[in-house]
Specification:
- It is built from six helices and nine strands; from the N terminus they run ααβαβαββαβββαββ.
- By secondary structure, the protein is an alpha/beta fold.
- It has a single domain, classed as 3-Layer(aba) Sandwich (Rossmann fold).
- It is globular and about 45 Å long.
- This is Methyltransferase type 11.
């Protein structure tokens, strides 16, 4: 599947994350853990923000100048209803160029839909968009080797890919960042999240 195919699937599913049955605390405790590593509140972005607005709400409550990005037209339409004054980017993360540096980047359950050959470039793009001392939290498949698959989601076709933990940590190091936390937070499911921090004073 191409990113535009994933977007079409999410267009048809957008109301699920906007509804009352969606668990709005999903990922929030992990974000609070990530925020604890940050000593200031500046610019933030939610990559693959979806329609729920829950991560945006958290970032706004923490005092961030917050933006959001998603490839799904319908997801963004619902997200804009919740936050009409927010800056939204309607874009494919593979093609998007960050307009500046961010102090906090969230990519929760989103960039694992990026094609395998774009996984590492996208991660490096996000890490390189961090300001010194900035934090990125993101999810991936907790695998040792690269793997991708097509798995339906609520009856809609869906693609996911994971470069593998060694490749993730290599990208972290190459971009002048440090892994502050790595956890299988839904074990035995292979749902992995990482908290990565840009070094304030890179060595060398």
């Amino acid at each position: 599947m191409k990113p535009e195919d994933v977007a079409a699937s999410y267009d048809r599913l957008a109301s699920h994350w906007d509804g009352d049955l969606f668990h709005r605390e999903n990922g929030i405790a992990q974000h609070r853990r990530a925020l604890a590593f940050l000593d200031h509140r500046g610019r933030a972005i939610d990559i693959g923000c979806g329609s729920s607005g829950r991560i945006v709400d958290l970032l706004l409550s923490e005092g961030f100048d917050t933006e959001a990005l998603d490839i799904s037209t319908e997801m963004l339409a619902l997200a804009r209803r919740r936050h009409p004054d927010l800056t939204f980017h309607h874009a494919d993360i593979c093609k998007w160029t960050p307009p500046g540096l961010y102090d906090f980047v969230s990519a929760w359950d989103s960039i694992w839909h990026v094609p395998m050959d774009e996984q590492e470039p996208v991660l490096r793009k996000l890490f390189n968009a961090l300001s010194p001392g900035g934090i990125c939290i993101f999810t991936s498949g907790g695998l040792d080797e690269p793997s991708d698959t097509d798995n339906p989601c609520m009856g809609e076709p869906m693609y996911t890919a994971a470069p593998g933990i060694p490749a993730l940590l290599e990208a972290v190091s190459d971009c002048g960042c440090v892994c502050r936390h790595l956890e299988y937070d839904q074990f035995p499911e292979k749902h992995l999240y990482l908290i990565v921090q840009k070094q304030a004073h890179p060595s060398g």
